[in-house]
Amino acid sequence: MSFHQFLLILRARYIAALAVLFVTVAAVTGYSLWLPKQYSASTAIVLDVKSVDPVTGTSSQSMAGAGYMATQLDIINSDRTARAVVKNLKLEGSSSVQEMWLDATKGRGQLIDWLSSLLQKNLDVKPSRESSVININYTATDPAFAATVANAFAQAYIDVNLDLRLAPARQYAAFFEEQTKTARLQVEQAQKALSDYQQKNGIVSADDRLDYETAKLNDTSSQLTGVQAQTTDSQSKRQSSKADTIAEVMQNPLVNGLKTDIARLEARLVESSGNLGKNHPQTLRSQSELATLKSQLEQETAKVTSSIETTYQVGKQREQQLSNALSTQKGRVLMLNKQRDELIVLRRELDSAQRLFDSMSARASQSNVESKTDQTNIAVLNPAIAPTKASSPRVFLNVLVSVFIGTLLGIGLALALELRRRRVRSDEDLLDALGIPMLGQISSANRVMKPSRLGARA
């Protein structure tokens, strides 16, 4: 079908096409005028994606992600936010709303679920391009109600977003609070174990006491070494076969005096024996005196050797006492070392429990503060106000669309009627129908016959 044939069909069927166009325009216009007026109110909210946590002082990197804005749109469109709007506006208490719910659902389901789904149908959430602003649009027949619901959705979104952020903090706060109690109990138990151990063993200062006992051990060891040296020396002297070679005997002044007197008297006796003879009274007196001096020398030497024996016996007893004292002191020092090691272990357990308690207490305090904060990174930029002009129906736009659609329908109807009963309206139709060349055509009675284009070709 050529464009010329198309125009001829439209000229022949223009009445039907115009009728369809008129009916379509009239129907759309009437329906648009019959529809109740709808008013759209819009609330603009802004999200600070680079906000800093007032508690920790750190910024969240997850807010800058590509999916963050999509997540916020889903939160606004969620059932939880819609239920929050119903509760904030107290729509459940309206008797008219309850009657509408009973008529629509026959009492099945929950009223709040029905209301939330009803509110979501007229909700339109759109993010601004290349910005952090979200527009919340709500459409209703009452302009004031539309503005109220739009603002309610904005506030409900802020509350839900804050609750979603604080819910983990509340859980963490409860968890760390319980862990803090457990850590405090561990600190108390470790402190009690340390105190009981100190009281049981009488420990005031383990390091000072150990230093004192160690010094005492060293002193006892030194004394024992000295006594052992003296005892060894006494033993060697008492075992000597010649008493006059002992240092104590040789250094004794009385013994040395007696030896001098004996030597002098022996010299005199030799002289007297040579001059006066052995039986001379003077010689005999000298012999008697010499015997007396030698007896005194033996007695003094015996006294000195006896003192050496006494010194040896006393040294052995002292050595035994010091040896016992040294063994006792060693045991005491070893016991103190063991007590100090056990005390160190108890103190380390106490320090570890204290560090754990401090860490848990700090984390619990931070989580508790985070769970009670009411700060959010969302703010209302432009609150919704009651619109003065209806957003729908748009009569003029609907009429323009109906004209376009009516025109298409009219053209379609004209073509359908023509195809149902095809008529010859031009030489091209005749050529398509018969398939033979046409020699000419008679356009009207007052026009001369002229050869057709096909005939000229032939």
- Any idea what the shape is? rod-shaped
Number of helical segments with 4 or more residues:
14
Straight-line N-to-C gap: 22 Å
- Strand tally: 6
Specify the oligomeric state.
single chain
**Proportion of residues in helical segments:** over 70%
Strand order in the sheet with the most strands: 2-3-1-4
The description of the largest β-sheet is:
4 strands, antiparallel
User: What percent strand?
Assistant: 5-15%
Structural class of the secondary elements? alpha+beta
Radius of gyration over alpha carbons?
64 Å
Q: Could you state the order of secondary-structure elements as H and E? A: HHEHHHHEEHHHHHEHHEEH
Which whole number gives the mean pLDDT?
A: 76
- In terms of per-residue confidence, which ranges show pLDDT below 50 for 5 or more consecutive residues? 445-458
Region (Disordered): 221-244
Domain Tyrosine-protein kinase G-rich: 342-416
Biased composition (Polar residues): 221-238
Keywords: Membrane, Transmembrane, Transmembrane helix
